[in-house]
C-alpha cells in the first residue's frame, strides 16, 4: 500500500486529491493545523478514512514529525494562503506559508525520507504580467502580487532541491481551477452564491471588480488527477495544467445567472458598468473599484500540450459544466438553509 501526505488537505484541492488517492488504495495522511475548534473543512466526509497529523508549515519540527509518522511515499504540498487579494493585506503571512513553508517541507523531506516523491503546487499567478500568450512551461515569470511572488519562491526552491539533492520533485503550474468546494472569497464562488441568493430573493445585488479580467478556468477534480500523474512518471518534470481556453469574469457571471433563468444585459463601461435583469430592468450586478487589484493580471491562458502528451492528461469537465455544477450546488445548499 502506498502512503501519501497531503498538506492543505482540508481545502478544495486537498479534498479532491484525498478522494482520488483513497480510491486508488493509498493510505492517506493529512497535515492539519491545531485549532480551538476541530474543523475538517472539505474532508468532513472522509475524516474516518484519513489519518490526520497536527502540524504547521511555518514549524519545521512539526513537519519533520509528520514525515517520521507518515513515512510517506508521496508528498503533495497544497498548503497555502491562496487568496490573491488577501496577500496584499497579509504579505508576510503569505510569504511564511507559501515560500518558507515549501522550503521547510523540502528540508524535512531531505533529512527524513529523501526517496519520497514531492509535488509542489505552483500557480499561473507566477506569470502575472504575461510575456507571451498562451503561457508555456518556458514562459518567463512576472508575478504581480505578493501571492504570486511567494509561490514563485516555492516553485524555484523545489527545482533547486531537485537539482541539488536528486530529489524526485515536480511543480504543477496550475491555472485557475474551481469547484463547488471553492472558498466563498474567490470571485467564481462569489458569483455563483450571489446568483443563487438573488434568485431566491435573499440578496439584492452582486458587486464585482474587473469584469474584463480573463482567466483559464477548469475544474479542480480534473486538475488533481494531473498532480497524481506527475508523481507516477519515471522522471520528475514540471507541467502546466490548463484548459487552453480563456473567459472573462463578465462571461462567467452571465452564464451563472442564465442557468437560473436570469438574462443579464450589460450597460456602461469601466467602473460604471452594470448588469441588468432584461426582464425586470433591475440592476443586479455593479462594479466596485475596491475589488480591483493594486496590480492587475489581465489575462491568463495556459498551453497544456506537454501534460496532454507526456502524462496522457485531459480535462473532462468543460467550462460551462463547471459553472453549472457550482450554481446548482449553491442554489441547493442555500435553498436548504432557508427552508425553500
TrEMBL record:
Stored Pfam families: GDP_Man_Dehyd (PF16363)
Top EC category: lyase
GO BP, one annotated term: 'de novo' GDP-L-fucose biosynthetic process
Annotated gene: gmd
EC number: 4.2.1.47
Keywords, in A-Z order: Lyase, NADP
Cofactor(s) listed in the protein's UniProt record: NADP(+)
InterPro entries associated with the record: GDP_Man_deHydtase (IPR006368), NAD(P)-bd_dom (IPR016040), NAD(P)-bd_dom_sf (IPR036291)
GO MF, one annotated term: NADP+ binding
Family matches, as SUPFAM superfamilies: NAD(P)-binding Rossmann-fold domains
Catalysed reaction equations from the record: GDP-alpha-D-mannose = GDP-4-dehydro-alpha-D-rhamnose + H2O
Superkingdom, natural source: Bacteria
Annotated PANTHER family: GDP-MANNOSE 4,6 DEHYDRATASE (PTHR43715:SF1), GDP-MANNOSE 4,6-DEHYDRATASE (PTHR43715)
Known function: Catalyzes the conversion of GDP-D-mannose to GDP-4-dehydro-6-deoxy-D-mannose.
Homology family: Belongs to the NAD(P)-dependent epimerase/dehydratase family. GDP-mannose 4,6-dehydratase subfamily.
Protein name: GDP-mannose 4,6-dehydratase
Domain NAD(P)-binding, first and last residues per copy: 5-326
